[in-house]
Amino acid sequence: MGDFFERVVDLEATGEEAGPLAGRMVDWMVAEGIVTREMTGDGVYSLSVDHGYAPGPDWARAVADASDPSWLPGPVAVVVGRDYHVGGQGEDEADSATCPRCATRTVVIDHPESFEADEEVWRPFRDGIAAWKETGRGEVTCPACAVLVPVTEWDFGPGFDLGALAFDFWGWPPLGVSFLAEFRAGLGHRTEEQSGKF
Fold first, then answer.
1. Is the confidence at residue 69, as pLDDT, over 90?
2. Which of 16, 65, 189, 196 is the most buried (most CB within 10 A)?
3. Are strands 148-150 and 139-141 parallel, antiparallel or unpaired?
4. Beta 139-141 vs 105-107: how paired, if at all?
C-alpha cells in the first residue's frame, strides 16, 4: 500500500532565503484556505520533517480534480534546509548527471543492466552534494570536459533535485496546473515537481 506524495522543490532559494520564503508561502496558503496553521504528524513521512500543516477548508482549489468525496488530503510538510530530494521509492542516487557546460550525460545507474549506482561514478557527485549541504558550495569536475561545475548546476534528470526548500503534499489528489503556476510565481524561482510513494 503506502502513502503517496507530490513535492514542489525550489531549485534556486539559498539556505538563508529558504526559511523566510517558506513562511511567506505558508501565509499565502493559509490566506487562500488551502492549509490551516494546525500542525499534525499524521501521514507525514518526509525525511527531515515529521509534522505538516493540516489541509484547509478550500484545499480543493489546489487540485486538478476534487470530485471524489472520499479522498481527503493529508498534511503539507515544509522542508527547509539544503538537501537532495528524490521521487519514487527507495531511491538515493540519480540515474545520470548532465554537465551544463558540455552537455555530456554521465550514466550513474546503467538501466536495464543494473539497478544500482556505479559507486565510482557517483562518488564525486555524492561528495559534491555533501559539501553543498554543509557549506552551501559543492563542485564536481566533469569527466568529459574537465570543467569544475557547481553541483547545483548539474541536471540529474527527473526525480532527483537539489534545493533548500521543498513542500511535500501528502496524500493529495494531483495538484492543479493553475495552483502550481501560482505557487511557482509566489516562490519566484525555478521549481521541479516530484511524486512518489513512501
1. no
2. 196
3. antiparallel
4. unpaired
> Taking a C-beta distance cutoff of 8 angstroms, is the pair 164, 15 a contact?
yes
Give the whole-angstrom CA distance, residue 42 versus residue 185.
29
CB-based contacts of 180-185 (< 8 A; 24+ apart in sequence): 180/8, 183/8, 183/25, 184/8
Whether the predicted model's global pTM rises above the 0.85 cut: yes
Across 28-56, average pLDDT: 96
pLDDT in tens, 148-194: 999 999 999 889 999 999 999 999 999 999 999 999 999 999 999 99
Distances (CA, A) of 98 to 10, 104, 181: 19, 6, 27
In b/e form, how buried is each residue of 172-197, taking b as 16+ CB within 10 angstroms? bbebbeebbeebeeebebebbbbebe
CA distance to 118, 179, 188, 189, per residue, from 185 (Å):
38, 10, 5, 7
Q: Outline where DSSP puts E strands in 41-186.
A: 52-55, 76-86, 96-98, 105-107, 139-141, 148-150, 160-170
- C-alpha 91/C-alpha 93 separation (Å) is 6
Q: How far is CA 129 from the centre of its chain?
A: 15
- Please, are residues 30 and 38 in contact by the beta-carbon 8 Å criterion? no
Q: How far apart are CA 41 and CA 165, in angstroms?
A: 19
